[in-house]
Amino acid sequence: MVGIKSYGVYIPYNRLSRAEIHNTWQTMPFPMKGERTVANFDEDSLTIAVAAGIDCLTGLERKEVDGLFACSTTFPYREKLASATMAMALDLRSDIRTADFSNSLRCATIGLSSALDALAAGAAKTVLLTSSDCRLGAPGSEFEQSVGDGGAAFLLAKEDLIAEVEDRYTITDEFCGMWRSHEDTFIRMWEDRMVHDEGYSRIMEEAIIRAVKKAARSLDSFAKIVYDPPADNRRHAMLARKLGISKEQLQEPFFEQIGHTGTAMASMMLVAALEQAKAGDRLLFASYGNGVDVFILKVTNGIAKVRNNGTFARQLNTKRMIYNYPTYLRWRNIVSMEKSRRPDLPPTSLSNLRRNAKILLSLYGVKCKKCGTPQYSQAGLISSYVMPQRVCVECGTKDQFDDYPFYDKKGTVCTYTQDKLAASLDPPLTVTIIDFEGGGRAAFEMTDRDPAEVKVGMPVELTFRKLFFDRGIHNYYWKTKPIRS
Amino acid sequence: MSGSIKDRVAIVGMGCTRFGELWNKSASDLVVEAAYEAFEDAGVEPKDIQAGWVGASYDVSAKTGMGLTAPLRLQGVPVTRVENACATGIDAFRNACYAVAAGIYDLVLALGVEKIKDMGFSGLGVGYYPGVSNTQPMLTAPGAFAILATRYFEKYGLSYEEGKRAIGAISVKSHANGSLNPKAHFQNKITLEQVINAPIIAEPLGLYDCCGVSDGAAAAIITRADMARNFRSDPVYVKALQICVSADYGRISTKYDYTHIPETYLAGQRAYEEAGIKNPREEISMAEVHDCFSITELVTMEDLQFSPRGRAREDIESGFFNLDGGLPVQPDGGLKCFGHPVGASGIRMLYEMYLQLQGRAGKRQIKNPRLGLTHSLGGQPGGCTISVCIVGLK
Lengths: 485, 394
What we know:
The complex is a heterodimer. By secondary structure, chain A is of the alpha+beta class.
């Protein structure tokens, strides 16, 4: 039997009130209800997927993961594998399958099917599947209010499962209802009634009915029915009424707190459903996008032992409302601000990044075999190098080190500043000197923080972020953030 | 250590341009003005100079010694370009002194120059580094030193307001001194309230906690001690020259606490030993230290053993470091007011010690100084290069 061994989710800390957007443009008679999640300026689909992956791998051995399937319609590069970068940030082995699934809001379940096939065929014992999206609605559009940013992850395996996949059903459906071409920054859509009624509602209904019939079950035998809404969230409940799904059975899409997270939508809802599930529950899980994938899951006794239990609710409820709508425009580079009067960045050296990938992307330092001191070798706050550690900073021994990961270590703030002169998309630039539990020190920018809460001695954890996009290169590294409880 | 520079070489001529935002001067103007003032002061001709050391942190010379030879048209003279961040000027001077002490040359020129204000933005810019990962926090120089203040206030239990007042008093003192100096970048007096109410640059440092960023040049002519009186009756002798370079230790080791600069302590201690000084607070007459930011000057007072650990604030607030205090610091206004053209600053500090020792400091004159100390810090807390130089009359 194949299925889900563990789940993870990432709900961005930053939220934007839909009324803020509405009040700026007044393009609709009234705003949509609630708020939406907004990826911070240093987040994208890749960092969100990494965050969900880290959550999913809580307490698990990362070196046992045999594959990473990453699913998104908004990965940073058209030609360059996101899952290869993610495998470094997640500290996975190099002899694994990495694959990006894209070009459909259903790509997460397409990836899920492929992962289940690989497991069933014996090609892998565990596959980490991530889904994430940061889609853009044009300023003033309904999409701008209705979409949200977020991600989910599942570790798929053959043993120690929390939910078994009992049956699957899929249909494909050619339809240019919603799309984004190589020329588009923003999502495009054909007339909404046609797209939702003919595209979504009819196909989703048909797929669910056929899947349930194929499994020789009835809809009322499911504890939870999880399917993603279309662009218009109201169609989600309309379909439930048509199919006779009860309120208790229907997994809500968190539209008023998160928004439509694209590829990740159905998966995030499944995480929320698993968080409430009991052993023996049956779940129906379906995702739409040029067709529908349907999965029938049976929750096992393993559900009681989930390591990161409560992660969805915890992340949903820890948040900050961003200052205003222009902040969102600035973070997404929808308006270009005057360039900061600071020195231009020198070109990022790709040979340097490749040579130091384990230091930079996997945040590995070393531990001296002789004196036992963990050390992470950054060489400068203003100057801009990392350097491999060859000589022990404490005892002077040369080349006698064990690799030592820092990404999973918590730390405390040794000292910090709020730099108002420095260029930042979320000023002031908060810079922290961190002392790691167990030893080692490094300097990092702090993100997802309220400047007023930063204190000497404050506990922090590390988060993988995008530093900037410059001359065609997305540069990723680690930052600190306050620990949210 | 086997050797000492004490009383082996002497300064017989110095020059220093006005520092400031010199929009209408090029680096070569500054080199010519500082060097010719020094030639005149020493009573020598450019052709008498046997070798040169030019310090510049930004490029003024295609990275060669031509930064000195080209503006002065010193065809064929051996010149070394020295770069060691804010310790650049004193390191150029140090290498010049060593060459003379080694007996290779009799008369040499050390000159520091910087033309910063052509960059198009305030503050210091980093240079062009090939091959960078660009992963460091994009911190500014004020930010890199502000972390010292955050931790110092925390360790010694100073409230934000108490800390701001302590470092603020440093800037008030330096502006008072700068107002007496016609070559200083800033010549205005300020009040403690102005310092405290100024806009924050990098918390807790405000505008007046930050030094000027300036263009300028300064020069020194050095000869053998036994020849010095051939040039003038009041040569100034070098008593100690120390450079202490960090192994980036504080950035990597949690043993460093960000409330002081251990490299300054080491450089100072070695310089005191070289000069035969037992009690720096009593024996040093005056000092020009690296006050890139007010907090840097505060911790330097402790690292140079002028004040006990954690107690520089008392000396600052009692006026001990004022021009009429027990140990005047920054008599010329310091980096804060004289300005900070990076590669020139160390030799500018020497220029003030030189004038004071010779009784030529005008309104800023300190009574009967015997020994003057200069201190420069290149880099940032956690990883830096320190220079300490002590000079005095024979």
